[in-house]
Design a protein that fits this description.
Number of strands: 0
Largest sheet: none
Number of domains: 1
Distance between the termini: 25 Å
Strand content: under 5%
C-alpha cells in the first residue's frame, strides 16, 4: 500500500507541475508582450487556480500519508520539505499572483490612456516597467530551485 501512496504523491506532483505550466508560460509571454491590448487577451487564457489548489491538497495529503506509513515524521528531511513547500506556496501566491495583477492593471491603464490621448507615453512606460519587473525571474528560480531541493530531500533523505 505504501508504494501506491508514494505513486499517488509523485503523480499528483507531476499533475501540479503540468497544470501550473500554463501559468508559467503565460507569465513569460507577458514579459515579452509590448502591446498592452494583446496582453489583456492573455488573461483570458489563464485558468483559475482552483484546480491547482485541489491538486496541491492531494500532493500534501498523499505526502503526509506516505510520511506516516513510512514512519518518516521523526526525520528532519520531511519537515524541511514541508516547510519549503509552504514557503514556496506563500511566495508564489504573494509575488506570482501580485505580478499578474500588477501587469493586468498597468495594461488596462495603458489601453484606456491610449484611447484618450495616444501621444501620452507615461502609461506605456509604466506598463513596460510592470511587465519587465523581477517577478518572472524570481518566481521561476524560486519554483524550480525549491522543487529541486524538495526532490533532493525526498530522494536522498539526508537528515
Amino acid at each position: 500500500m505504501y508504494q501506491w501512496v508514494v505513486f499517488a504523491h509523485v503523480a499528483s506532483v507531476l499533475a501540479f507541475m503540468l497544470a501550473h505550466g500554463i501559468h508559467v508560460t503565460v507569465m513569460w509571454a507577458m514579459r515579452r508582450e509590448p502591446d498592452p491590448e494583446r496582453m489583456l487577451t492573455l488573461f483570458n487564457d489563464v485558468p483559475k487556480t482552483t484546480g491547482l489548489r485541489v491538486i496541491l491538497l492531494v500532493v500534501v495529503l498523499s505526502g503526509a500519508t506516505a510520511g506516516f506509513m513510512g514512519s518518516w515524521w521523526g526525520r528532519g528531511w520531511i519537515w524541511a520539505s514541508l516547510i519549503l513547500l509552504t514557503v514556496i506556496a506563500v511566495a508564489m501566491w504573494r509575488f506570482g499572483g501580485g505580478y499578474f495583477g500588477l501587469v493586468q492593471e498597468a495594461a488596462e491603464v495603458a489601453v484606456a490612456a491610449r484611447r484618450e490621448d495616444p501621444s501620452n507615453p507615461a502609461p506605456q512606460t509604466a506598463y513596460d516597467a510592470a511587465r519587465g519587473s523581477w517577478h518572472t525571474i524570481g518566481m521561476s528560480v524560486l519554483g524550480l530551485g525549491g522543487v529541486a531541493v524538495i526532490l533532493w530531500l525526498m530522494m536522498f533523505k539526508p537528515f
